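Onboarding guide, step 5: your first structure request.
Type a short instruction followed by the sequence, for example:

Predict the 3D structure of this protein.
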Amino acid sequence: MTNETLGIVEARRRLGPLVARAVHGRQPTTITRSEEERAVLISEKEYEELLRAREELEVGRIREAIAARERGESRMHGYETRDELYADLGLPAPGEPS
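The system replies with structure tokens like these:
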């Protein structure tokens, strides 16, 4: 699978074929606006697969943290915010990038 990299102007010009290639050929395209601003065009199906994999990873980490607590390998801790809990578990808060 090749991952073509295009500037945003060229990607805009070729958007239709790039979407078709992502959906039917499962070929991602990296789109750059600057050195720091990059995105990847993938099919909705692949995006959903990535979300599902991320959720499974997060659930696994949480289960392991609970199991470690039950084995006495970690102590109980109170959190002021949900973000503190996620940070302690090494997870991005909901809505943050992984």
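Each response can be followed by summary notes, for example: Residues 4-42 form a domain with the YefM-like fold fold (CATH 3.40.1620.10).
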